[in-house]
Design goal:
The chain has 6 helices and 10 strands; from the N terminus they run βββαβαβββαβαβαβα. By secondary structure, it is of the alpha/beta class. The chain has one domain: P-loop containing nucleotide triphosphate hydrolases (Rossmann fold, 3-Layer(aba) Sandwich), CATH 3.40.50.300. It is globular and about 50 Å long. This is ATP-binding protein. One of its GO terms (molecular function) is GTP binding. Keywords: ATP-binding, GTP-binding, Hydrolase, Nucleotide-binding.
Length: 226
C-alpha cells in the first residue's frame, strides 16, 4: 500500500476499494420504593484499519477483561500475498477477530470487535459488522492507503465511524486536516490523534465515537420522511 511521500503528501482515496431491588427506608422508618437498577446498554463497536495499524494493541490496552485474540504467525506463504510494506518487523496477524470490553459509564458498555486487516480476510467484515452501531478506523500514516477499504466499507453501509491516527514512535507527524483530506471523509467525521498503547488515549477515542453515534442518530430522527 502507498505511504506518506517524503514531501509530506499523502495519496488521496479515490473511487471504491474492493474488498434485585431491596425496599428502601425513610428516616421515619416508612418503607419507600427503591430506585430501579439501571441495566447497562451493550453497544457493539468495530475496530478496523490496515494490517499493522495497531488494532490488537488498542483492544488490549483498553479492555477491562482479558482480550480474546486470534493471532497467528506470519508464514512464507502469507508473505507472498500480504502487503507488509512499512511493517516488515511484524511477525503475527489477526486471522479472525480481537474481542474486548470497556465500561464507559454505569449504563453503557462497549463490546469491541477488532477486524482482520489483511485483504484475504476481508470476507469476514460483513459478518462482524452485523449489529454494530459504530466503528473506529485506526490509521497508520506510514501506509495510509491501507485504511481506505475500511473507510469505504463503513461509508457504504452508513455505519458511523471516527478516524484514530495512531502516532507511532519515530514516524513523521502529520496535521489532522492533512489526514482528513487524504482520506476524503466528510467534515462531521471526527479525526483524532491517538496512541493505541495508552488506555486513556483510546478511551477518549471511544467516547468521541459514542458522541458521534448519538449525533448521527439524532440527525436521522429529525430527518424528514416521505
Amino acid at each position: 500500500m502507498a505511504s506518506g511521500n517524503s514531501d509530506g503528501q499523502f495519496p488521496n482515496r479515490t473511487g471504491d476499494a474492493e474488498y434485585g431491588n431491596a425496599p428502601g427506608r425513610s428516616g421515619t422508618g416508612a418503607a419507600v420504593r427503591a430506585r430501579p437498577v439501571l441495566e447497562a446498554l451493550p453497544v457493539k463497536v468495530l475496530i478496523a484499519g490496515g494490517f499493522g495499524a495497531g488494532k490488537t494493541t488498542l483492544v488490549g490496552s483498553v479492555s477491562e477483561i482479558v482480550p480474546l485474540r486470534t493471532e497467528e504467525l506470519l508464514t512464507e506463504v502469507g508473505a507472498a500475498v500480504d502487503d507488509v510494506t512499512g511493517v516488515e518487523r511484524k511477525t503475527t496477524t489477526t486471522v479472525a477477530l480481537d474481542f474486548g470490553r470497556i465500561t464507559i459509564a454505569a449504563d453503557l458498555i462497549l463490546y469491541l470487535f477488532g477486524t482482520p486487516g489483511q485483504e484475504r480476510f476481508w470476507f469476514m467484515w460483513d459478518e462482524l459488522a452485523q449489529g454494530a452501531l459504530g466503528a473506529l478506523v485506526l490509521a497508520d500514516t506510514r501506509r495510509l492507503g491501507s485504511c481506505f477499504p475500511s473507510v469505504d466499507f463503513f461509508e457504504r453501509r452508513r455505519i458511523p465511524f471516527v478516524i484514530g491516527v495512531n502516532c507511532f514512535d519515530g514516524v513523521q507527524p502529520y496535521p489532522v486536516e492533512a489526514v482528513r483530506q487524504a482520506l476524503d471523509v466528510d467534515g462531521e467525521v471526527p479525526v483524532l490523534l491517538c496512541d493505541a498503547r495508552d488506555r486513556e488515549s483510546v478511551k477518549f477515542l471511544l467516547i468521541a465515537l459514542v458522541e458521534h453515534i448519538m449525533a448521527t442518530l439524532r440527525v436521522a430522527d429529525t430527518a424528514p420522511t416521505g
